[in-house]
Structure to design on (245 residues):
C-alpha cells in the first residue's frame, strides 16, 4: 500500500510515523508513506497556496489550481483521493477496512476556511474523524493512516489481533488480564485460569456483549445475533450475573 499525504505542514507527520507499528511497517516496506508539500505546486515568487474567498467573508480558501496540480501529479489508475474534513462521512472501522484494501491513497489535508469547491470533482471520498473542528486535516490524516496501516497483512505480529478487537463484528472487545493473578485483593476472573478454551471463548463473547450494552448500546442495535449470542444476551439481561466486571 502506498499513501501520499498532501499537506502544507509535512513536518507534523515526522514523529507519529517514526514510532511503533507504523515505523515498523514502513521499515519492512509493507507500507510506503510520503508527505507531499502542497506549496511545491504553487507558482510564482510567493508560492501562494490560498486566496480570498469570492463573495467576501472571513478566512482564506486553498486554491484550485495548486491542489489540482498536486493531485494530478500523484494520481494513478488505482489511486483513491480522500479529503479529510468535518463534513465527511464519520470514520468507522468498516470504512477503515474498506480503505485498507486500496492500493494507493492520496490524503488531502485542508486548512484555512476550506478548499475551492471545484476540487471536490477530483476527490473520491470525504472523511471526518468526528463531529468537531480541527485546525486542519493533518491530525485526521494521521488517524486514517494509523487505523489503515495496522490492518495491512503482516503489519501486526499476530494477524488475529485485528480480528478480535473492538468494533470487529460490531462489538467492543472483551477485557484482558495478565500477571499478577492477585494484586491488592483484586483477582483475575476464574474462567480465564481454567485452561478450558470453549468456556473462555464463551466468557469473552458474553463480556463483549455486556460491555457493548453498557458502553455503546447504539452499536447493539446495528447488528444481528446468532443463537449463541441471543442466549448470552438473555443471561446478561434477565438472569442476573456472577461477578464478571
Ligand atoms: N479537518 C478539520 N476538522 C476535521 C475533522 N473533524 N475530521 C477530519 N478532518 C478535519
Amino acid at each position: 500500500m502506498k499513501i501520499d499525504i498532501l499537506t502544507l505542514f509535512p513536518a507534523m507527520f515526522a514523529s507519529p510515523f517514526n514510532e511503533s507499528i507504523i515505523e515498523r511497517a514502513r521499515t519492512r516496506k509493507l507500507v510506503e508513506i510520503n508527505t507531499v508539500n502542497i506549496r511545491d505546486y504553487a507558482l510564482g515568487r510567493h508560492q501562494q497556496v490560498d486566496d480570498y474567498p469570492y463573495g467576501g467573508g472571513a478566512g482564506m480558501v486553498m486554491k484550485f489550481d495548486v491542489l489540482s496540480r498536486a493531485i494530478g501529479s500523484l494520481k494513478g489508475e488505482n489511486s483513491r483521493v480522500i479529503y479529510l474534513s468535518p463534513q465527511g462521512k464519520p470514520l468507522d472501522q468498516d470504512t477503515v477496512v474498506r480503505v485498507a484494501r486500496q492500493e494507493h491513497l492520496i490524503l488531502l489535508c485542508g486548512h484555512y476556511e476550506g478548499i475551492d469547491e471545484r476540487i471536490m470533482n477530483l476527490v473520491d471520498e470525504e472523511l471526518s474523524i468526528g463531529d468537531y473542528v480541527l485546525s486542519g486535516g493533518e491530525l485526521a490524516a494521521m488517524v486514517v493512516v494509523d487505523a489503515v496501516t495496522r490492518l495491512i497483512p503482516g503489519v501486526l505480529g499476530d494477524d488475529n489481533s485485528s480480528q478480535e478487537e473492538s468494533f470487529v463484528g460490531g462489538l467492543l472487545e472483551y477485557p484482558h488480564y495478565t500477571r499478577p493473578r492477585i494484586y491488592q485483593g483484586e483477582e483475575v476472573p476464574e474462567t480465564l485460569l481454567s485452561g478450558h478454551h470453549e468456556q473462555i471463548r464463551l466468557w469473552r463473547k458474553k463480556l463483549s456483549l455486556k460491555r457493548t450494552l453498557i458502553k455503546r448500546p447504539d452499536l447493539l442495535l446495528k447488528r444481528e445475533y446468532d443463537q449463541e449470542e441471543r442466549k448470552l444476551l438473555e443471561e446478561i439481561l434477565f438472569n442476573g450475573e456472577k461477578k464478571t466486571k
Strands lie at 2-7, 32-37, 50-51, 61-62, 79-90, 104-109, 114-115, 125-128, 182-183, 186-187. The chain has two domains: 2-149, 166-238. The two ends are 40 Å apart (CA to CA). The pocket of adenine is lined by residues 84-86, 128-130, 132-134, 137, 140 (CB under 6 Å).
